[in-house]
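Q: What residues go here?
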């Protein structure tokens, strides 16, 4: 098996049984494990009897750790990067060091494994394959409203915390009162729950249920935005020599519309 200098290693988002054999092998074989919170990662390592040394690497010390890691790698040693849960660089640190490693021609690879977005969306039926992942939603109502207006015809996937979820739901409902959403919590754990409904009904549901654990959610696209008639604009662009794929890309960008729906209109 090919060896790399730096390994990005997903860790379970809840159920420890989801860790892969390769992830365990890498965590045992590297010289250093860079992790968000040593206490969290140490619990995982203790469970699998892994003795590799850990060093903290989080959003507050990302830049100052770069030289330290480069020095370790220059000695021929190997490093693995983990987050507290899931795949690093998804709303977690890692981008700074990976960019520097590639600049300095060190080899980097990422292992397949747990990811909350993929785990959540694989349980949620959607109208199309396209979606936008925005990480944690912004805090203010105006920012959320801007996001909803920008992505009317695309599913918006996000993370949230238990103490913010009710405010998020109420804000989405106020800005788009006909909205539908899906909320997933405690993914892969004993009390996993996926709720798919109108936003107002989800609000009622969580008013009588205790909220715990990290949350993944999706705000479904507005149904009527996929039926926009772009026939006039399509004909104009066709007359200028644009192809169907080019037209669908142009109009989807200009009008925040669904690219696949526009393409279907182009080829009718």
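A:
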């Amino acid at each position: 098996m090919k060896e790399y200098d730096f390994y990005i290693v997903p860790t379970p988002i809840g159920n420890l049984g989801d860790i892969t054999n390769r992830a365990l092998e890498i965590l045992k074989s590297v010289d250093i494990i860079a992790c968000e919170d040593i206490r969290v990662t140490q619990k995982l390592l203790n469970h699998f009897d892994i003795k590799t040394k850990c060093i903290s690497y989080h959003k507050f010390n990302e830049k100052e750790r770069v030289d330290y890691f480069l020095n370790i790698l220059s000695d021929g040693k190997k490093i693995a990067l983990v987050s507290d849960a899931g795949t690093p660089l998804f709303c977690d640190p890692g981008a700074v060091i990976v960019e520097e490693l590639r600049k300095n021609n060190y080899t980097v690879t990422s292992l397949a494994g747990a990811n909350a977005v993929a785990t959540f969306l694989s349980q949620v039926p959607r109208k199309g394959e396209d979606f936008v992942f925005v990480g944690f939603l912004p805090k203010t109502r105006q920012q959320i409203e801007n996001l909803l207006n920008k992505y009317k015809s695309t599913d918006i996937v996000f993370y949230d915390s238990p103490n913010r979820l009710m405010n998020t739901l109420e804000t989405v409902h106020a800005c788009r009162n006909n909205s539908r959403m899906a909320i997933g919590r405690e993914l892969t754990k004993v009390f996993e729950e996926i709720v798919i409904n109108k936003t107002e009904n989800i609000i009622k549901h969580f008013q009588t249920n205790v909220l715990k654990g990290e949350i993944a959610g999706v705000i479904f696209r507005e149904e009527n935005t996929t039926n926009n008639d772009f026939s006039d604009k399509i004909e104009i662009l066709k007359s200028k020599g644009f192809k169907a794929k080019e037209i669908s890309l142009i109009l989807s960008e200009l009008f925040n519309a669904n690219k696949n729906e526009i393409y279907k209109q182009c080829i009718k």
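A: Context that may help when evaluating the design: DSSP finds eleven helices and ten strands in the chain. The domain at 6-114 is CATH 3.40.1010.10 (Cobalt-precorrin-4 Transmethylase; domain 1).
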